[in-house]
């Protein structure tokens, strides 16, 4: 900056200001240091905030939970798009939810799934150039028109033989979406089977976890390189009628996470968490939300057991349908999974689904959410 000569002379001629007393100088320095520390703490705290990703269905419980707790939600993925065998894009968009989310600055990233997770539909989309081109064009148009944050791809039941084709499909979607300033997420199955065998020193729990059959079509490393994030569906550990057990036992979840971290960077990985219950009885299995489970259990006298090793609550009881094993997730078990996210410094977590959770989890389990929209 140029200073006029007259002012310059007056500055030179002026008497120097008296030095600040040492006590005042020390106090001023402390205040500056405190201010800088607060700024650094704010920046580091923001950087530590987890990306809180929740799935959503078009029902009243999902909507109530979303509107009540949106400040703790980074990203919502409604199950709004499915592809049928001919490549038609079927949509169940809810304009009310879109408008509400955008007004409250919550990012929407709907799911794109193969209808009923049918392998034949996945195969058709992945191997028929015209069907695939139609799907990419239609979903891109829908996301642009609705001003979504992006899309999460949730193709399940993909044949293992279609592994290269699926990877190429994700790369194509990523190129198209990134070229239009949209994000792409990919949901992937757990890499390990639900039941371990003993005898390995590689696992801290002394277990060998065989690879799961459904993971064969997913090149985790290549998918992470193409997409903006990967959601690891680390749940449904036990699902078959003859195989009751935890929905997502901690040793299994931990082993799945470490397995995927060998291929997916931690800052791109979301840990999937279940919010539902599953009740096994006879040859049947039923599912529902936490409040439904509590309503059922309130009529029983069977105590809730918490397995510290598995990090999972469960109840066994008898009724007119015979013997039941009911496993669920509560604030305590979800808090332990969030601690796993923090331990491995993951991007955050993905939870299935809004409206199914233990209400106490919002205060006791879920941390402050990273904001994606200004």
How does this structure look, described?
It is a single chain. By secondary structure, the chain is α/β, with parallel strands linked by helices. The protein has one domain (48-275, 330-364): Glycosidases (TIM Barrel, Alpha-Beta Barrel), CATH 3.20.20.80. Helix content is 38%, strand content 22%. The chain has helices at residues 5-13, 22-48, 60-69, 95-103, 119-127, 129-146, 163-179, 220-226, 250-261, 290-297, 331-343, 361-364; strands at residues 51-56, 75-78, 81-83, 89-91, 107-108, 111-114, 150-154, 183-189, 197-198, 207-208, 229-233, 269-274, 277-281, 284-288, 305-307, 312-319, 322-327, 348-352. The strands form 3 sheets. An 11-stranded mixed β-sheet has the order 4-3-6-7-8-11-12-18-1-2-5. A 5-stranded antiparallel β-sheet has the order 14-13-17-16-15. Strands 9-10 form a two-stranded antiparallel ribbon. Helix 5 packs across helix 6 (129-146). The longest helix has 27 residues, at 22-48. It is globular. The protein starts with a helix and ends in a 10-residue tail after the last helix. Residues 1-17 and 32-46 have low confidence and may be disordered.
């Amino acid at each position: 900056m140029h200073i006029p000569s007259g002012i310059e002379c007056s500055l030179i001629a002026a008497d120097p200001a008296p030095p600040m007393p040492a006590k005042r100088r020390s106090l001023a320095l402390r205040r500056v240091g405190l201010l800088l520390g607060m700024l650094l703490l704010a920046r580091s705290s923001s950087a530590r905030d987890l990306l809180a990703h929740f799935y959503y269905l078009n029902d009243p419980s999902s909507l109530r939970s979303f509107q009540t707790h949106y400040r703790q939600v980074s990203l919502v993925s409604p199950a709004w798009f499915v592809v049928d065998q001919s490549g038609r894009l079927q949509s169940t968009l809810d304009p009310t939810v879109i408008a509400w989310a955008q007004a409250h600055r919550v990012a929407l990233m709907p799911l794109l799934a193969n209808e009923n997770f049918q392998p034949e539909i996945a195969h058709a989309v992945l191997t028929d150039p015209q069907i695939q081109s139609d799907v990419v064009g239609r979903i891109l148009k829908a996301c642009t028109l609705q001003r979504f944050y992006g899309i999460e791809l949730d193709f399940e039941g993909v044949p293992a033989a279609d592994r290269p084709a699926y990877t190429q499909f994700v790369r194509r979607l990523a190129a198209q979406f990134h070229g239009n300033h949209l994000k792409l997420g990919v949901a992937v199955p757990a890499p390990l089977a639900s039941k371990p065998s003993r005898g390995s020193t590689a696992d801290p729990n002394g277990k060998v976890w065989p690879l799961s059959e459904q993971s064969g079509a997913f090149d985790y490393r290549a998918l992470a390189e193409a997409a903006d994030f990967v959601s690891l569906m680390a749940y449904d550990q036990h699902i078959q009628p003859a195989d009751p057990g935890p929905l997502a036992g901690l040793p299994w979840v931990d082993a799945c996470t470490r397995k995927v971290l060998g291929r997916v960077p931690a800052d791109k990985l979301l840990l999937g968490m279940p919010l539902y219950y599953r009740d096994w009885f006879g040859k049947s299995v039923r599912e529902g939300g936490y409040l439904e489970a509590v309503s059922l259990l309130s009529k029983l006298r069977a105590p809730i057991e918490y397995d510290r090793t598995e990090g999972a609550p469960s109840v066994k009881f008898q009724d007119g349908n015979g013997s039941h094993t009911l496993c669920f997730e509560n604030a305590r078990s979800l808090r332990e999974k969030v601690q796993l996210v923090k331990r491995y410094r993951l991007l955050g977590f993905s939870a299935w689904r809004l409206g199914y959770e233990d209400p106490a989890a919002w205060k006791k389990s879920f941390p402050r959410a990273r904001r994606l929209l200004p």
